Amino acid sequence: MTEEIVASFDYQIEKDDFKIAGSASSHIKKILKQLGLPNPLVRRASIIAYELEINLVIHTVGGAMHLEVHPNCVVISTEDMGPGIEDVDQAMTEGYSTANDTAREMGFGAGMGLPNIRRCSDEFSIRSTFGTGTWIRSEIHVG
Amino acid sequence: MKLREIKEILNAECLTDDDCLDHEVDFAFGSDLMSDVLAFVDENTLLLTGLVNPQVIRTAEMMDINQIVFVRGKRPSDSTIRLAKANGIALLTTKEILFMACGKLYEKGLRGVPIV
Ligand SMILES: Nc1ncnc2c1ncn2[C@@H]1O[C@H](COP(=O)(O)OP(=O)(O)O)[C@@H](O)[C@H]1O
Ligand SMILES: [Mg+2]
Q1: Number of structural domains, chain A?
Q2: Within a domain: A2
Q3: Structure confidence by residue, pLDDT tens digits, B18-61
Q4: To test the ligand 1 pocket, which listed residue (A60, A65, A85, A86) has its Cβ within 8 A of the most ligand atoms?
């Protein structure tokens, strides 16, 4: 990863705000398109951003999402203020979900989000402290 | 298959501007699970769903899905329709249930998203 930053944006994501959920990801997608990045990369980044954003809305007390575009990579990361994940391996398992009924009514809670984020990433890391919060970083290589 | 033809097959109503009926789709995907849409859908796909919340439009936007058919007579709110229009996404609504809508389109030659 080079130090040079082409673009950088921060987004505050509110808990349970289904009306505007997705607007940060929408912005990220528009930025990446404007920068002329290739469509398959923009699509992967959009999926990553949107699944991360929805997770902040439905699973946390709220948090922040960041976009960093470097000449040779795109980094999307989130951090939240809790509740944290007790068993990260379990959370990464396809089909595992603790989503509530409201989230399910919106079409989420299939337990496919984190596995899909990892699949779309070239580099993926997740750190969580139960009771404190979760930090997730996804990197896509350019070119 | 042209969206115009899909509208006729499903006896559907168009909720966005009529010029969107010239959209051409290659595949279809029927689901009420947006995470599955995010995991399986490919380009140029028609989404059929019974969900009408704004997240359906956001999901479509993320996946470059430019057309959605709402089944079981479902209709999104005006603000959700506006969000779709702002993103160039065509919306149709049909009284058919998901199974019948998919069946009728399949019968006319439209096929599902290839799953790899
Ligand atoms: N930021 C987060 N904070 C706390 N828990 C999380 C977070 N992200 C994911 N999880 C947990 O991991 C599980 C799996 O997440 P995911 O694969 O996105 O599926 P889903 O969102 O459909 O439940 C969630 O149900 C939740 O228990
Ligand atoms: Mg999720």
Answers
A1: 1
A2: no
A3: 989 999 999 999 999 999 999 999 889 999 999 999 999 999 99
A4: A85
User: pLDDT-derived band of residue B116, with 50, 70 and 90 as boundaries?
Assistant: confident
**Would you state the structure tokens that stand for residue A74, as one six-digit string?**
């795109």
Q: Which fold has domain B3-112?
A: 3.40.1390
Separation between Cα atoms, residue B106 and residue B88, nearest integer Å: 25
Q: What tens digit of pLDDT does each residue of A77-110 get?
A: 999 999 999 999 999 999 999 999 999 999 999 9
Tokens of B29: 């995907």
Provide the domain limits for residue A26: 7-141
- CATH value at residue A67: 3.30.565.10
| Beta carbons of A21 and B63 less than 8 Å apart | no
- Answer whether A97 contacts ligand 1 (Cβ < 6 A): yes
From the alpha carbon of A80, which atom of ligand 1 is closest?
A: 1
* pLDDT above 60 (res A114): yes
Q: Residue ranges per domain, chain B?
A: 3-112
Domain-embedded: residue A1: no
* Number of residues that make up chain B: 116
Longest CA–CA separation in chain B, Å: 36
A-chain CB neighbours of B56 within 8 Å are: 107
pTM, two decimal places: 0.95
Residues 6+ apart with CB under 8 A from A39: B64
Distance from A121 to chain B by nearest Cα, in Å? Answer: 13
User: Is A75 within the bounds of a domain?
Assistant: yes
